[in-house]
Amino acid sequence: MKTFKYLNKYIIKVSLSKALFAQLQKLRNRSTLSQAIANFIHLFLLALLLGFASCKKTLEVGVPRAQLIASTVFQSEATANAVLSAAYLSSSGLTAGVANSPTILGARLADETDNYSTNQAIKEVANNQMISSNTYPTLLWQSIYGCIYQCNTILEGLKDNAAISQTAKERLNGESLFLRALCHFYATSLYGNVPIVTSTDYRINTLISQSSVAAVMEQVKADLLRAKTLLPADYSLYANERVRANKWAATALLARVYLYNGENQKAIEQSSEVIASPLFSLPPLASVFLKNSAETILQYKLTSTTLNTNEGSLFILTAKPTQTALKTSFYNGFETGDNRKTAWTGKVTSAGIDYYFPYKYKVKTGATPTEYSMMIRLAEMYLIRSEANARLNQLPLAIADLDVIRSRAGLAKIATTNPSISQSDLLDAILNERRSELFTEWAHRWMDLRRFGKLDAVMSAIKPGWKPAAQLLPIPYSEVLINQKLKQNLGY
Amino acid sequence: MKKSIIIIVLATLWLIPKANAQDYHISGAVKNLSGQPIAGANITTTPAPNQKQLTTQTTQDGSFSLKLNQLAGTLTITYLGYQSQTLTYKSGETLSITLTEDATGLKEVEINTGYYSVKQKQLTGSISFIKAETMEKQPVSNPLQALQGRITGAYVSQSNGTPGSNVNLIIRGRNSIESSTAPLYIVDGIPFAGQNLTSDLSVSTRVYSSGGGSPFNTLSPDDISSIEILKDADATAIYGSRGANGVVLIATKRAKSGKTKIDVNAYSGISEATRTLKVMNTQQYLEFRKQALDLDGTPIATTDYDLNGTWDQTKDHNWQNELLGGTARFNNVRLSITGGNERNSFLVSGTYNSQGSVYQGNLGYDRATVHLASSHTSADQKFSASFSATYSADNTNWLNNDLVPRSLTLSPNAPEIRNPDGSLNWENSTWINPLRELESKYKSSNNNLLGSAMFAYRPIKNLELRASLGYNQYSLTDNTITPVSFYDPADGRTSAQSFSDFNDTKTKSYSIEPQASYTLPTKFVTFSFLSGMTIQRQQRDQLLLRGTGFASDALVSSLRAAAVTTVRAYTNSTYGYSGVYARANYTLNDRYILNLTGRRDGSSRFGTGKQFANFGAIGAAYIFSEETWIKEKLSFLSFGKLRISYGSSGNDQIGDYEYLNTYASNGGYNGVAGLSPVRPYNPDFAWELNKKLELGLDFGLLKDKIRGTIGYYRNRSSNQLINYPLAATTGFSSVRTNMGATVQNTGLEFELNAEVIKAKKFSWETSFNLTMPRNKLVSFPGLSSTTYANSYEVGRPLNISKLYHLLGVNPTTGLYEFQDYNNDGVISSENDRQYVVEKGQRYYGGWNNSISYGNVQLDFLFQFVKQDLANILTNLNISAGQISNLPADYVGNTWLKPGDIAKYQRPSASNFDALTQFGYFISSNAVISDASFIRLKNVSLSYKNSKLIKNTPIRVYLQGQNLWTITNYFGLDPETANYSTPPLRTITLGLQLSL
User: Fold this and answer.
1) Region B795-812 average pLDDT
2) Set of chain A residues whose Cβ sits within 8 Å of the Cβ of B726
């Protein structure tokens, strides 16, 4: 067939050339001007035809060496895995403790740290006086929806896909759903009403509308419930490295979502499942943030030749702070005898002034990783179950879980010191326990203050010019500009 | 590489002239009326029947010799601008020929339009050019610099004074919102990758600041015979899709027949920075600092080294002088050999150029170029071939960072740079030594091979078949090192933290262009027709590596010694391009000229169904001075031509493969490589379309003693190729698409040449050019709902800035005040950056003079530009009052106490309000100001003598570039208007002799 095509082309070329030659002969024997011109035009047209055959071929440039055509990507498990790998990478703006991550933004927004940076955008964050074009909420938004897009390409690529095995598909779908849920959860927790994106069509997604917080939470729950059924129940697939989402990560996040949503019974069920798993236990304070510690449900492993974690790099002080340090008031807020005050905070003295810093991660720089960024850990599960029980007025159960956390920190058990504590006092104690346990992690403090309805009271006392509208991040200015269906949050 | 050299050598050998046994011979010399030898005059014999025509050219000293095929006959001597002469000869004679200048002769200049040549008189398009004679007068290393101030419709500016840095050339304004504004560059028929290779993710971005390095540095100006700038539709439509931004044709020097000649030309000189900025001295500076702290109410802190006595307060450094005040050498040597007979000729030349730096340290740039050209004509004159090849290699050894920012902001009482033992002084870690940059080197080498061959065959009279083949290989290898010695030893860094970047970029392209042309001259009508096609492929590869952790600083240039190597970029792309074109020209009575050009183009940068597009133009000219009634009634009008052209061309200057739906690898996670979509999939975008209209009047008065051109153009560019901004909810920031926005460039161009005095020994010729461009965004549907709304406004030029509107300094608070556009009581970038400032050139041009007296010739060129650009304030991002020096303009113009009416707000090192207002200030209308200038761009004084040594004409010359500038610009240099080394003033002395 191919030979025939070639032959055909060749014959055409030869006959064209012959015609060309004949015209040339005519031109040589020209008699009149008009005839000569006419002959020449014939000649030209023939030459054009001849030339055009080779023209098209010049334009065939194939695909660049470092790229793959989209249609082939989901034809093999290896390449589909690579897309998921890129999804984890693209989540790093959310998950890896960079300046726009919930961890760092939360630490700056809430009552945990003082700002020493002269950067205008950071000052705005730390003063809770952002303008909507502030780079940090913009970067976080881009990272969240970038990761959601990547997850959606996987979910779409695996739909009706016969090339990839069922087991692989389940795992790929499960991890994508987990990441998508994590992204939507933080989007709605920090920005309020946000778009739910479940497709990859840019024509639709560039003009998408916001959904209510409740609707986003429903989506998050649905994704997590599906992920939970699809994902493996241990870490064996990844050489026991706890750096990829499995069933337990989905269950743990689900517990948190239910708690935030007021579905306390379900929160208890989910957190109990995790607590009951033999995979997890509470190690001593010093080992909690080590890589793959027994407390870890999920960690983010940074790809870096110089750092273990971004958190360690930013928080740990060796001299007078130029970025951030713990507020002295926060440092002094630990209960007397709380071992976390000594194990998880550090101090540096410069020009006679003491500066405190979060010292959960011990490595500021270092090529060989001993620590990974903690995403979800067991202690939170106890605190979730404790709070859910407290809200359901099952106080002894609540106290028992709270005391597990207190005991590890070297604090007296409430069961012994104050067994008849009232529900509201217990909730206050839980909030305070969460403060000491989860500080400068994943904006827990910021979101807790809001959940407990204490944000205005706490913030107005320490942040001059605090406005209640500052409880939400602004929808990025560029987003509102491009997508006019988006409504800016109040106060921006 | 080796292969290419062998090919060049073989090709040259093949064309080396073969001896012809002939018995008849004639020689002589050609001079003008004032006795000056005329080089390059054509001598042709009138052939007897069955004999072929013989031809030669005079050499540098005006002499010629010609082997003849008959004993006696007639000779015709022609030379541009002179009346031709025909005389009889006899073999063995030595002729002395004097040519008279022909006032109207210049109209016979042949203009190369790329695919065809046309007499300037009959030109229907708009083309400006400069010739080798003009280039030779300018001591520049980048050929594009030689165009500055000399041509209309093209604005040429240097991006900074670092050797090898970019020279911007924009023809008739910016046509595109996002696509490149670079014109199409063609060197000897081969498309040359004129865009710099260092613009994307390379190691050299800091060295050349914004512009990157220029590939044109690898072309030696000495090897260039002409540069032509094709501007309107008539001239550019034959380049179709690539002609939207104009076309620059660069022709290298060709082989010359005649006696073997050796030409030596050497010049040497010095360069220094053109301008400096007056900054505060120590006394002014310290007082200003104290005022800042007083107003802030803060005591002198332990870190205020300039005030607390840590630094010697009696020192008064002039940092600009210490860091940029050096004198750089500038050397250039060229040796060329030409020769051959009427059928075979050759040219071989070698050029070496070296430049030093105005910084301290052993830094420099050098370049070596070899240029070969040869040509051959068959005995029956039906076949001819020419071949040329240029190979050049350059080396840059430079700093990794420009020293200008530090030189302007370092405290005048900062410590000494060096310790008495010569080592860098870190003054107990109280400062960052500016000369640590000498440790962090930038090294690059560019290699450029350009080869072209042209074959022409005339099977029958008036028909010519041609084929041009071209090959270009361009590579850039560069490396920056950051050793430990770059840092203060007290930082305690180890060599494990040292790193080094290695970049390797290669571009290869070839082009094949067959062509047929046919001319049919009759008594009243000349009809000519031309058609051909282009096939072009370009391949580009880049590999950028970073090595981290070296055992020793001494090994930091070796990737092998790195502990960790990471690939920072690896890209490959292929660009395919093809087209067919045709031109028909119809000339009636030498008076009415109609020129039609058309092209069908295909580009691999577009998806299926969008690859091909048609472009075309119509040009017409009417030489009204040929009308008898004009010849009779308006006899002072020696030449007059009206021309008009209209047509289209396109722009495909976007990235390759953008229509593809592909995944590319990225870093990955947990040891698994990642794959993610490269871009949102849109295969439906197509060419940007540019429609050009031109009206022109060319005239000559008083026997062409005064000649001029007035031109008007209007270019409208639509179907703009842009990256349309997407909401981040799509996962992308933009999608490549066409946008219905229209950008318009209009302008007026004037050129005037006059022979003021023309006497036997003394002559004075002057020429003046002026361009008045206007750029406008005519329409942009949906502008307000895109992020482009922050940068553009319909009805305004593309080159605007939207800024805060500075109202002044509040006399009570001493703070800057800005207009609150939406009256919400808050100044914010979203709502209050509404003050629109138009930047760029309002008009520009040049005034050139050539005065000669006997053997002495003086040329000087003034360049002038009227423009508004960013001034120095935009770069001073440290608030006035902190440890950072300031322009002396602050002294006496700063608010100090309530009631002061001042230009600048209160000095402050730490006051929150003052720092905030300062942040707005550097983005306010205060930072854009007049950057107009008049510059004595070039002076050349030369003396010729051909009698001093027999048969060896000598020329001695003194040349200067960027000699003197008149400007009110608030900043370093108005041409660059940025925060980098200003263009250099160069003065050289040279000697040229021909053996």
Assistant:
1) 93
2) 202, 205-206, 482
